[in-house]
């Protein structure tokens, strides 16, 4: 099958590497949707601007703890990283070719070292469509009688088998509905597969069955502290243009009041009557904790037998917000081309979106060690 995509001229060398290795690696090509005039790639990728395919036989053997193995033995996602490094002139990761003529790379004992996170396969300065935020998934509940699915919460991809969300989502109970699956690779709930106006499509979205959940031991249902959980899938998901792992921010450096971040998910915005089928993105400012105390302390929502410490973050309050259906959604910042999740949406007010009414998020930095300690090793 030939997938037609529009690409920036500067990506010719990357695609030459990808097409020379394995046909399926085209799934990992970076798609540039704005910038220079695009070209259409069909059966062949023509060499442009003097680009040449590197001679793999010129590469040297591994040093240190790396072992020279065929590239695909080091993980599919490493193909993307190899293409990016080669395009940037870094050939040190290659160590030769095997008997089938396939590239060999220096792979460490811990193959997760090669996994990339926080990167999209679609690049564009103002692009917000399919593939712009591929880190977000929908948490699915099945009706035990009709079998119909509902998706009242959101989560984020940490790895092929682990999803990060809010504990109140993982433990949610509703008459006739039971936590069932995670829908991965979705963008527009009304279409499948999803396709972009720039002539590329994502693979069909998949509902991945849940193996088990890990809820923070200090979370208490009906309260709002330690509102964090991991969902472990029965089978690993496949990365694609619409499904990629997010990076987690383990500190609060430069996360100052007034800095803007993006919350992503499916649900109803403050100015909407009904939910949108497409993933919604909203840029919101980080707010002072005093702003949340003024709104929520009188309600008792911030009362806890446990120390709240700095585990919660106050966000928004400028007169627009995400509301119903966004529980568990990631709050994301972008730094040096990498997307970092800094928080998880926990709760908000019935007066969602009113000026001076922020929402409360669970901060990633406070729980980074718990997340790492409880994420299954793949």
How would you sum up this structure, described in words?
Belongs to the peptidase S1 family. CLIP subfamily. GO terms for molecular function: serine-type endopeptidase activity. About 40% of the residues are buried. The protein has helices at about 10-20, 75-85, 165-170, 290-295, 365-375, and strands spanning about 5, 30, 40, 65-70, 95, 105, 120-125, 135-145, 150-155, 160-165, 175-185, 205-215, 230-235, 245-250, 260-265, 280-285, 310-320, 330-335, 340-345, 355-365. The strands form five sheets. Strands 8-9-10-13-12-11 form a six-stranded antiparallel barrel. It has a six-stranded antiparallel β-barrel with strand order 15-16-17-20-19-18. A three-stranded antiparallel sheet has the order 4-6-5, with no helix packed on it. The protein has five helices and 20 strands. It is mainly β and about 375 residues long. The longest helix is centred in the first third of the chain and has 11 residues, at about 75-85. It starts with a strand and ends with a helix. It is about 10% helix and about 30% strand. It is globular and about 70 Å long. Among the domains are: about 135-235, Thrombin, subunit H, CATH 2.40.10.10; about 245-365, Thrombin, subunit H (Beta Barrel). Residues about 1-30, about 35-60 and about 110-115 have low confidence and may be disordered. Helix 1 (about 10-20) crosses helix 2 (about 75-85). A hairpin with a 7-residue loop joins strand 19 and strand 20 (about 355-365).
